[in-house]
Amino acid sequence: MASDRIFGLVTLFVALAYIASATQIQTSFLSDPVGPKAFPMLIGAVAAVCALVMIFKPDPDPDWPVARTWGGLAIAVIVLVCYAYALKPLGFVIPTALAAGILSYQISPRAGAAVASGLGLSVGLFILFKFALGLGLVAFPKGWF
Predict the structure, then answer these.
(1) Long-range contacts of 97-103 (CB under 8 A, 24+ apart)
(2) What is the pTM (predicted TM-score) of this model?
């Protein structure tokens, strides 16, 4: 019970800091009636409500994951941080294929399926983001073409 309450308290402080930082967003004269602050403040409010639920209604005896699960989570965090740093120099397709493949392999350790899902996700998401949503993504490193 104490671990849920401590995590809830930390989450509450982070949510309040998030809301406070959202109030600092500058609005332009051409903004919509709701403004750019509404969505971040809504996310912070939902996080604060969830934190209060954890503080006032914790689980009686939470089950902590085994060490192998913590290792898998650490690998996933490392992969996602490397992915964020690799996007700009390597383009979208290569880092997305690698990250999606590694994370897919963690979910189901079958190499063929992981490679196929990594390639499929990277190409499919690139097509969706570039052509359907009109984002300015670069597929590959600029020096390649």
Answers:
(1) 97/121, 97/122, 97/123, 102/75, 103/76, 103/79
(2) 0.65
